[in-house]
Specification:
Elements: H1 2-15, H2 24-37, H3 57-70, H4 88-101, H5 103-113, H6 136-145, H7 148-158, H8 161-176, H9 203-220, H10 227-231, H11 252-272, H12 277-294, H13 304-316, H14 318-333, H15 345-366, H16 381-388, H17 390-403, H18 413-439
Helix pairs in contact: 1-6, 2-3, 5-6, 5-8, 6-13, 9-18, 11-12, 12-13, 12-18, 13-14, 14-15, 14-18, 17-18
Length: 448
């Protein structure tokens, strides 16, 4: 069944080969050209294109390996001067390279599915025939292999996150199997501005928004000169240094301190209970939460660092499933601005709703939740109302803002509203998850 599932999902990915692709497609084509055409000591000096090689050496060597295959497909894609080159052969090759490298993720997920004891399943006592939605291994396979966020970012937007998450999830699987003792720490891009071009929906998005509102209120009440608004360019969608107008400006040291303080309780908790796999995985998710919410220059795609490993916890614990379902909606919706072309609108909406509805149905079934009128028994009324707010927000950001003629004067407002709205839900999910982690809530599937 696992092989069939992997083939079906891979086939869906293949159907998206001719879809919209972002500038990251040209970025990776240029990196193929750099690593193929130049000696190693020139890779990080080449600047013919604006898309210079700025990923770690491991990824550069990955591109070098791909370039050896690309030479036999279309050698023209490996020429440095062929900027924005995108022949049919090039498109098919690069798209297929993402699908092929996803095989590492497939293998990692298969290993995760073997950790049945972690999911609260006794393989010796489990009946041979049961509903697929009651099969923890099947549910976790769908949640990971069919993750909407990865599908959107890798197979439409175009990146190579799948095999990297394969490395992460393989490490998690090995730890759950008692084979690994260490995890790698992530690096922080302190040399860039506080926020990325599209604000990641975190604490600093709320902080920036509060500063913007305070500046507007100050000018209206004549406490501030109107000229300060022209300097508040954080909403222009540019990657740059920014000094806040009313609130204190944030430095890399502040974000580093906030990040460390946010993850410290989980690290201490793990230190006290080092042999508990669930504590380890919750600590991993808490670190991802802390880095995302308080980190410096966080990319919106980093929300997947939370959602992907949280999928494992969601299958094994009802409390974790509630947080996961909330993020399955709001966290994945925060990625919508990445794909803004009309041709892909129906694809992203359908895949988003299908994934979220499957998560809701499967997790509700696994945890034996009684159905409610709303059909989402894992969420309370206020959480449901908040989730439903996504739809009017998306209508305004997609259609309303332009219909009101505000795009030229306030082009960044739709992105800002999406970021701020999602930041509220993600920060709430973080606080709820922290309460679960530190209280050792481990309600498993078959405990009831």
């Amino acid at each position: 069944m696992f092989i069939i599932l992997a083939l079906v999902i891979s086939s869906i990915k293949a159907l998206c080969i001719p879809s919209y692709r972002s500038t990251d497609f040209e970025v990776h084509r240029n990196w193929l050209a750099i690593t193929h055409s130049l000696p190693v000591n020139k890779w990080y000096y080449e600047d013919t294109s604006e898309w210079t090689l700025d990923y770690p050496p491991f990824f550069a060597w990955f591109e070098w390996v791909l370039s050896k295959v690309a030479y036999y497909i279309d050698p023209a894609m490996l020429q440095l001067e062929n900027l924005n080159y995108a022949s049919n052969a090039t498109v098919v090759f690069q798209r297929c390279s993402v699908i092929f490298t996803d095989l590492l993720l497939v293998y990692a997920v298969k290993e995760c599915c073997l950790c049945r004891k972690f999911f609260g399943v006794d393989s010796k006592r489990q009946p041979p025939e049961q509903s697929l939605l009651k099969d923890a291994g099947f549910v976790v396979a769908v949640l990971l292999l069919g993750n909407f966020g990865l599908f959107l970012v890798d197979h439409i937007h175009f990146q190579y996150n799948g095999f990297l998450f394969g490395v992460l999830m393989l490490s998690v699987a090995r730890i759950l199997q008692g084979q690994l003792n260490q995890v790698l720490m992530r690096l922080f891009p302190f040399r860039r501005g506080l926020c990325h071009a599209y604000w990641a929906p975190n604490f600093w998005a709320l902080y920036n928004f509060a500063d913007k509102l305070a500046a507007l209120a100050g000018t209206k009440l004549q406490f501030l000169d109107s000229s300060v608004l022209s300097k508040s360019s954080m909403t222009a969608g540019l990657v740059q240094e920014y000094s806040h107008t009313v609130l204190p400006s944030v430095t890399p040291a502040v974000t580093f301190a906030c990040t460390v303080l946010s993850i410290l309780p989980s690290l201490i908790h793990l230190w006290i209970q080092p042999s508990n796999e669930r504590t380890f995985l919750r600590c991993l998710v808490s670190c991802a939460f802390g880095s995302f919410i308080f980190g410096w220059h966080v990319h919106e795609k980093a929300i997947l660092l939370i959602i992907i490993p949280l999928s494992l916890l969601a299958v094994g614990s009802r409390a974790d499933a509630k947080v996961f379902l909330l993020l399955a909606f709001i966290g994945h919706y925060s990625l919508f601005p990445l794909i803004f072309t009309q041709a892909e609108t129906m694809i992203k909406v359908f895949m988003f709703l299908f994934y979220a509805m499957f998560a809701n149905a499967s997790l509700s079934t696994l945890h034996k939740m009684n159905p409610r009128w709303c059909g989402m028994p894992l969420l309370n009324v206020w959480e449901l109302i908040y989730i439903m707010g996504i739809f009017p927000l998306d209508i305004y950001c997609s259609l309303g803002h332009r219909a009101l003629g505000l795009m030229e004067r306030l082009p960044f407002v739709p992105l800002m509203l999406t970021s701020v709205y999602c930041a509220v839900g993600i920060c709430y999910a973080w606080l709820r998850f922290y309460k679960i982690s530190l209280s050792n809530t481990t309600v498993k599937i078959h405990d009831e």
